[in-house]
Amino acid sequence: MLSALADPTRRAIFERLARSPSAVGEVARELPVSRPAVSQHLKVLKSAGLVTDQAVGTRHVYSVDPAGIAAIRNYFEQFWQQSLARFAAAAATHQEER
Amino acid sequence: MTTQLEATSVTTAVDVDAPVEHAFRVFTDGIGTWWNPDHHILQAELAEMVFEPYVGGHIIDRGTDGSECRWSRVLAYDPPRRVCFSWDISLRWEIETDPAKASEIEVVFTPEGAARTHVVLTHRHLDRHGDGWEGMRDAVKSGWSLVAFAAAAAA
Questions:
Q1: ipTM of this complex
Q2: Contact with chain A for residue B155, Cβ under 8 A
Q3: DSSP per-residue string spanning B42-55
Q4: pLDDT digits (tens, 9 = 90+) for B32-66
């Protein structure tokens, strides 16, 4: 579940859905990702409990799962793990340069 | 690197191969050297980041078009051991102007010998952003248009 947002493309899709619920085609148009790839990423996000989908008329609309705060925590956990790894690398590198 | 979760916070720790003063300086003054440049809410590309080193200062993103985004307020600044700042970004990735709806980040730097620092980052009060998620759910359920949702959210 926690690894679902480790992929930068999935993170971009998740952030896109957090701004507004959308169908697969809408996400694919706005991001440099093919429609089948978006579908695949959404499947992973859905099985991780991060996004949910429902039929709205003839469209299948995906949105960030509002079930609770779990999705927010998952997002920030990934965000800070990756950010602190970058920070640790930068601090060690600059140290060598001094 | 480890991560723990509590109900409304996230804690992440990392060990840095640098003295505590240096680690603190890179985290604050050098934020632009490690922050992922894709993570900003400017319309333009991110050109630089400024961490104002005092309580009441801001973390400021500057775009290549000269635009500015002050997305964080510095809440505590105690070099080289501790810094706190707010996360003034809503879950719709817009600036949150109500401090009561902002979450907070605390970073504690602990020296482990002369050349190593243990850094613990806690992002807490994540539930304060909760309204956005409720609104998102209600908007989808009621079949509102996104325009109506945006207007309701801004009201």
A1: 0.78
A2: no
A3: -SS-EEEEEE--ST
A4: 999 988 788 888 889 999 999 999 999 999 999 99
A76 touches B: beta carbon within 8 Å: yes
Q: Is the pLDDT reported for residue A65 higher than 50?
A: yes
Q: Please report residues of A whose CB lies closer than 8 A to that of B35.
A: 83, 86
Which superfamily is assigned to B2-128 in CATH?
START domain (3.30.530.20)
Query: Which residue range(s) make up the domain with A59?
Result: 2-97
- Note whether B154 contacts A: Cβ–Cβ < 8 A: no
CB burial of A12-29 (b: ≥16 within 10 Å; e: otherwise) equals bbbbbbbbbbbbbebbbe
SS3 label, residue A57: coil
Cβ of B18 under 8 Å from any chain A Cβ?
Answer: yes
Give the residue on A whose Cα is nearest the Cα of B4: A77
Q: In angstroms, what separates the C-alpha of B90 from chain A's closest C-alpha? A: 10
Of the listed ranges B59-63, B81-85, B146-150, the least confidently predicted one is: B146-150
- Give this prediction's pTM: 0.71
Which residue ranges make up each domain of chain B?
A: 2-128
Do residues A49 and A67 make contact, with C-beta atoms less than 8 angstroms apart?
Answer: yes
Sorting pLDDT into bands at 50, 70 and 90, what band is A66?
low
CATH of the domain at A93: 1.10.10.10
Between the CA atoms of A24, A7, B31 and B9, what dihedral angle is there, to the nearest 10 degrees? 90
Domain count, chain A: 1
Chain A residues touching B3 at Cβ < 8 A: 77, 80-81
